[in-house]
Design a protein that fits this description.
- The complex is a heterodimer of chains A (161) and B (386).
- Chain A has 161 residues and is of the alpha+beta class.
- In chain A, strands 2-3-1-4 form a four-stranded antiparallel β-sheet.
- In chain A, α2 packs across α3.
- The longest helix of chain A is centred in the N-terminal third of the chain and has 13 residues.
- With 386 residues, chain B is an alpha/beta fold.
- Chain B has two domains: 138 residues, Aspartate Aminotransferase, domain 1, CATH 3.90.1150.10; 222 residues, Aspartate Aminotransferase, domain 2 (3-Layer(aba) Sandwich), CATH 3.40.640.
- In chain B, the strands form three sheets. A seven-stranded mixed β-sheet of chain B has the order 2-8-7-6-5-3-4, with helices on both faces. Chain B has a three-stranded antiparallel β-sheet with strand order 9-12-11.
- Chain B is globular.
- Classes of the chains: A alpha+beta (161), B alpha/beta (386).
């Protein structure tokens, strides 16, 4: 129970200090620390990332979604092929999906050419790949449940009974 | 020219807190823990239902008592939460917020000379609504040592031959107090013995952090003498929609609807469509918001106690009501000086009745970051005093 509420609480804010987490969950600090350690050990908490809207920086960044079709065989399942994709640093996310394609990769590159090169020289030549479709992301509106660029303003009257 | 103002209006005390609110409004850089409404936006699917109703041209009056399907959802809500059976056609109706329902209930029930017992501290409208009917408001100062619950002794001490109504409001604004089934049982017994009606404002019912919310209407013999008032403002973060409801005995609801028809016509149609979505599909939203309030509640109570502002643990609404008695100043002084020196606004307890002296109301319907900043200002303020 502590575990579920803890996960819901830190899911959207991983920066709450341990002592505050403990108070907010009505638990001992050591209990929360142990729970977090367990969650990390069990591979349930897999990382703590920062959501950055690169569009608002001077950094050039190109994101692409790449649909990939593959041929599997008796000795070669999706998991093995997936590894051939996700081991590349450029691949940010890699999903097995249902529908017209088998995989969906999310790619991060510096330039469009870099992404194009990755597809043509790294991805397509993999022997199991039978087809790809690359979609460049033109604008990100919402990521991980957060509307990007929107600063939330408190529209309430300052005082009310 | 003759006096244009009625005696009733002239004699009614204006809310003393208004002046303080105006001072706060003049300080644009001040921050506040003074709001009495959720910090969540209305969940999108509920807003969307309101928007869709407008697109579909649902821009007309509804029936006076509210849309039949919404009243059915209100009845279903009481069945689901408390196992109470209300006939949606005759025992429920839809109002412009809980506030209107309070007014209508008092107008429907009270005559001049009747007495209505109102435990304080409480929301500011109960006494004025009672006074407008010509009835006498008999207030009971609730005690911090009882966690601001109404005790049977206090109630018995306030009852006279003229007492007709007991006004209850738990979870309570401003104290955050709740009354459990066990707390309510002897109160219900007295109401039956003394033949009292009960108006119970349960607008914060869904924001209960210890067990399930209990209603006095659920005790044997009480449903027929109780008007429950509730609404969408707090549970679904819908304050601006102005939508509430009442459930009670047919005889009283009929009269309330009659008065409501003349005063209001009907609750806003757009809001009723949004409310329908809320009651049908909003339980998950409530659970999410309640969990979040509860986390912030624990945080604020802990911080206040840590800085030496004693505060009993409130298990409802989104307020804490710490005592400032140890600082040797009145609630007004505390609030005024805190605003001047730290640019932080809180509501003095006296805004909710004179027995709120010695307390301040702090709302925790703010983000953790905002609470942190505000509480550090209170800490700094108190340190400067000692």
């Amino acid at each position: 129970m502590l575990r579920d509420e803890l996960l819901r609480l830190i899911r959207n804010n991983s920066r709450i200090e341990l002592k505050d987490l403990a108070v907010m969950l009505g638990a001992e600090e050591t209990a929360v620390a142990n729970e977090i350690a367990d969650l990390e050990k069990e591979g349930i908490i897999c990382g703590y990332y920062t959501l950055i809207n690169w569009d608002n920086t001077n950094e050039e960044m190109v994101d692409a979604l790449i649909e990939v079709n593959v041929n599997t065989s008796r000795d070669l399942g999706f998991d093995t092929i997936a590894e051939r994709f996700y081991m590349f640093d450029e691949v940010k996310s890699c999903y097995l999906i249902s529908g017209r394609y088998d995989f969906l990769l999310m790619l991060e590159g510096k330039t469009m050419r870099q992404v194009a090169n990755f597809v043509s020289s790294k991805l397509s030549p993999i022997e199991h790949v039978t087809g790809t479709a690359t979609h460049f992301i033109m604008k990100r509106y919402k990521d991980y449940g957060t509307v990007l660029g929107a600063v939330r303003k408190d529209c309430r009257e300052k005082m009310s009974i | 020219m003759r006096d244009p103002i009625s005696k009733v209006a002239r004699q009614m005390q204006p809310s003393g807190i208004r002046k303080f609110f105006d001072v706060v409004a003049e300080m644009p850089d001040a921050i506040s823990l003074g709001v009495g409404e959720p910090d969540f936006d209305t969940p999108w699917h509920i807003r969307e239902a309101g928007i869709y109703s407008l697109e579909k041209g649902r821009t007309f009056y509804t029936s006076n008592a509210g849309m039949p399907e919404l009243k059915r959802e209100v009845a279903a809500y009481y069945q689901r939460r408390h196992g109470l059976e209300y006939d949606p056609r005759t025992e429920t109706f839809i109002t412009v917020g809980g506030s209107e329902a309070i007014d209508m209930a008092m107008r429907a029930i009270l005559d001049p000379g009747d007495e209505v017992i109102i435990p304080e501290p409480c929301y500011v409208s109960y006494v004025p609504c009672a006074v407008m009917t010509g009835a006498k408001a008999v207030t009971i100062p609730l005690q911090e040592k009882n966690e601001f619950k109404l005790t049977p002794e206090e109630l018995l001490g306030a009852i006279t031959d003229r007492t007709k109504v007991l006004m209850l409001a738990f979870p309570n604004n401003p104290t955050g107090a709740i009354m459990t089934r066990e707390d309510l049982e002897p109160i219900a017994k007295i109401c039956l013995e003394k033949d009292l009606l009960v108006i119970t404002d349960e607008i914060y019912a869904e924001l209960t952090y210890s067990g399930e919310h209990a209603t006095i209407a659920a005790f044997p013999g009480m449903q027929e003498r109780t008007v429950i008032i509730n609404g969408f403002s707090k549970a679904y973060a819908m304050t601006g929609w102005r939508l509430g409801f009442a459930a009670g005995p047919r005889e009283i609801i009929t009269q309330m609807v009659k008065l409501h028809q003349f005063a209001i016509m009907c609750a806003p149609t757009t809001s009723q469509y949004a409310g329908l979505e809320a009651l049908r599909y909003g339980d998950e939203d409530i659970a999410m918001m309640r969990e979040s309030y509860n986390q912030r509640r624990r945080y604020v109570v802990n911080e206040l106690n840590d800085m030496g502002l004693h505060c009993f643990e409130p298990f409802g609404a989104f307020y804490v009501f710490p005592s400032i008695r140890s600082l040797n100043m009145t609630s007004d002084e505390f609030a005024t000086r805190l605003l001047e020196s730290e640019k932080l606004a809180v509501v003095p307890g006296t805004a909710f009745g004179s027995c709120g002296e010695g307390f301040i109301r702090i709302s925790y319907a703010y983000s953790l970051a905002e609470l942190k900043e505000a509480l550090s200002r209170i800490r700094h303020f108190i340190r400067g005093l000692i």
